[in-house]
Amino acid sequence: QVQLVESGGGLVQTGGSLRLSCAASGSIFRLNTMGWYRQAPGKPRELVAAITSGGSTNYADSVKGRFTISRDNAKNTVYLQMNSLKPEDTAVYYCNTASFNLLGNPFGSWGQGTQVTVSS
Fold it and tell me: What is the pLDDT of residue 16?
């Protein structure tokens, strides 16, 4: 089974920074666009950043200019550098593919995620 393991979350003050990491199994990582998602309490999960296998990136408007997604194909790892954090960035962050099967689901199984809490 494909596994995704997120790490790097924590508690930070407004304006602070965090760097999230996601280790993915090779079969899912190398060929797919990878993404970082987040889910705040009472809200649906949303895709906030994506990176293709070739390194092209795209961001949700809410994080554009503050978050940077990157990947290390040799390590099967995707990163999310988060700067200028705001309280509204508080959520559980997950990684998965940002390409989808015929049912509209990402190809990986959802991991436990990593909690990011931004205090005001």
Answer: 98
Q: How far is CA 53 from CA 10, 11, 33, 40, in A?
A: 28, 31, 6, 28
What SS3 class is residue 101? Answer: coil
Percent of the chain residues topping a pLDDT of 90: 79
Q: DSSP for 46-85, please give it.
A: EEEEEE-TT--EEE-TTTTTTEEEEEETTTTEEEEEE-S-
DSSP code for 88: G
Residue in the block written with tokens 């940077």: 68
Most confident of 1-5, 51-55, 71-75, 114-118: 114-118
Q: What is the mean pLDDT of residues 40-57?
A: 96
User: CA-based angle 102:49:8, to the nearest 5?
Assistant: 115
Residues forming a β-bridge with 114? 93
